Amino acid sequence: MQKTFLMVKPDGVQRGLVGEIVNRFEKKGFQLVGAKLMHVTEEIAGQHYAEHKERPFFGELVEFITSGPVFAMVWEGEEVIATARQMMGKTNPKEALPGTIRGDYGVTVGKNIIHGSDSPESAEREIAIFFKEEELVPYTKLVNEWIY
Ligand code: RTP
Ligand code: MG
């Protein structure tokens, strides 16, 4: 079963959107296998955003993600990586459709509420940056066999 790394960014935590965001993924049918409220250090930010190192907004990106606590999560389910990205909406909230997280709650691209892995390779890499193996809690859902 596929896993993805999702993170409520500092703006989402400050605005009290953690519960709303968790709710959306739970109701969709995905399974939470790890979660923690934490501060992102400059070192973790540098690793996480390594692909953006040369971009002009890299400094702002690191400054923002280290500015306050984030809510880091690992979610599991069929095609969860791509589906979570759809549920998040486009990177720029101005282009994100209503009904998506960024479309419903975001305004600016720099503070777009949530991060989600964009590929299986990114998911594996990002989960390893944020979580130790023993912090993930896989379990079998006993209630509905058709929900992941
Ligand atoms: P994320 O990594 O946060 O899930 O977002 P994403 O894949 O949709 O976007 P990505 O291209 O990976 O960019 C990472 C984050 O950088 C900020 N950004 N700022 N000022 C700008 O033009 C700009 N472009 C991107 C966004 O906060 C984006 O989420
Ligand atoms: Mg990205």
Automatic annotation (TrEMBL):
Annotated positions of the Phosphothreonine modification: T91
Keyword list, A-Z: ATP-binding, Cytoplasm, Kinase, Magnesium, Metal-binding, Nucleotide metabolism, Nucleotide-binding, Phosphoprotein, Transferase
Cofactor needs: Mg(2+)
GO biological process: CTP biosynthetic process; GTP biosynthetic process; UTP biosynthetic process
SMART domains xref list: NDK
Residues annotated as binding ATP: K9, F57, R85, T91, R102, N112
One Gene Ontology cellular component: cytoplasm
Domain Nucleoside diphosphate kinase-like intervals: 1-138
Alphabetized InterPro entries for the sequence: NDK-like_dom, NDK-like_dom_sf, Nucleoside_diP_kinase, Nucleoside_diP_kinase_AS
Record-listed E.C. numbers: 2.7.4.6
Pfam families per UniProt: NDK
Signal peptide: none
Record-annotated active site: H115 (pros-phosphohistidine intermediate)
Family: Belongs to the NDK family.
Complexes and interactors: Homotetramer.
Function recorded in the entry: (Microbial infection) Catalyzes the phosphorylation of dZDP to dZTP, when the bacterium is infected by a phage that produces the substrate for the synthesis of dZTP (2- amino-2'-deoxyadenosine 5'-triphosphate), which is then used by the phage as a DNA polymerase substrate.
Protein name: Nucleoside diphosphate kinase
